[in-house]
Design goal:
By secondary structure, the chain is an alpha/beta fold. Helix content is 48%, strand content 17%. The protein has two domains: 2-126 and 209-318, Malonyl-Coenzyme A Acyl Carrier Protein, domain 2, CATH 3.40.366; 133-200, Malonyl-CoA ACP transacylase, ACP-binding (Alpha-Beta Plaits), CATH 3.30.70.250. Helix 5 packs parallel to helix 6 (96-103), helix 7 (109-126) runs antiparallel to helix 10 and helix 10 runs antiparallel to helix 11. 48% of the residues are buried.
């Protein structure tokens, strides 16, 4: 039986999220140092000490989450001898796709960190025009309902789109604040039981990211060093496993403006009879909790503490 590893995206950041990984393991410290050298910024200090307002900024949150996830991956591999190639799939939610690709060997740690930092800067810049943007999670219905509600809001200055199709009971909408809030209110008449505004810095996964995507396309051409994946990575915009480096560039560009098809990703993992367990890598347990709500009988776990890592390693080797 095989496992799948999943990696969280922006919004999972919290003060101290990497402390146990960096302070408790030599390889964790080395990963953090490599990422800090790549982005020329002491991200570990911000992770440990905050303030949370600075950590939440897109250009900081994204490399910080990536660093935390990769520290956990390398600790599993180097400190405990866990073979990453034994996993059937990797998948990452939005930013987490980069951690998944790096874990799969498609990007080096330093190259991925630089790309992520530049990506975050571009995403921040795309939403600094003075216009007001928002992202809101709608709980209680699926994308089939919300797609109909956002249909009238595709105008350039009054835009609202489905950004994340997370589960049959959770959809995230993104766009101009007035349109997003109008759709949020309308959705309550169509089965939505709760609307939660996300603490992010812009209208991600929407056409508002178009200019940023164009610039990021150029950056990838100049700086990305892609390799074939050692483990298939289920990509956000297709919800299909990918191994060839030839498609990575276009997938990462389209992800900036396109929908994260996470519901379909989770469906694929749940319905694959070979997968015995889905494991969420640090930080947090948002994705594993979401999957458990969709599939109560799914076997899922999250890894972010030393105790959780050691329990996972014990179970993994005992099963061999």
């Amino acid at each position: 039986m095989a496992r799948a590893l999943i990696f969280p995206g922006q919004g999972s950041q919290k003060i101290g999220m990497a402390d146990a990984l960096v302070n408790g393991y030599r390889s964790g410290r080395e990963v953090m140092n490599e990422i800090e050298d790549a982005i020329s910024f002491k991200i570990s200090r911000l992770i440990s000490d905050g303030p949370i307002e600075e950590l939440t900024k897109t250009s900081n949150a994204q490399p910080a989450i990536f660093a935390t996830g990769m520290a956990c991956v390398i600790i599993l591999e180097q400190e405990y001898g866990y073979n990453l190639h034994d996993n059937k799939y990797f998948a990452g939610h939005s930013l987490g796709e980069y951690t998944a690709l790096c874990a799969a060997g498609a990007l080096s740690i330093g190259n991925a960190a630089r790309l992520i930092k530049l990506r975050g800067i571009l995403m921040e810049s795309a939403c600094s025009s003075g216009e007001d943007y928002a992202m809101v999670a709608l709980l209680g219905v699926g994308a089939d309902v919300i797609d109909n509600l956002v249909e009238p809001y595709h105008d350039g200055r009054n835009m609202c789109v489905v950004a994340n199709d997370n589960s049959p009971q959770q959809v995230v909408i993104s766009g101009h604040r007035d349109a997003v809030m109008t759709v949020s209110e309308e959705s309550r008449n169509h089965g939505v039981i709760k609307a939660i505004e996300l603490k992010v810095g812009g209208a991600f996964h929407s056409p508002i990211m178009g200019k940023a995507a164009i610039e990021f396309d150029k950056i990838l051409l100049e700086e990305a060093e892609f390799h074939d994946c050692n483990v298939p990575v289920i990509m956000n915009t297709t919800a299909l496993p990918l191994t060839s480096k030839d498609e990575l560039h276009s997938c990462l560009v389209s992800q900036m403006t396109g929908r994260v098809r996470w519901r379909e990703t989770i469906d694929l993992l749940y319905n694959d009879a070979e997968i015995s367990e889905v494991v969420e890598i640090a930080p947090g347990r948002t994705l594993s909790t979401m999957m458990k709500r969709s599939y109560p009988d799914a076997r899922v776990r999250s890894l972010e503490t030393v105790a959780q890592i050691e329990e996972f390693i014990h179970d993994a080797f005992e099963a061999e």
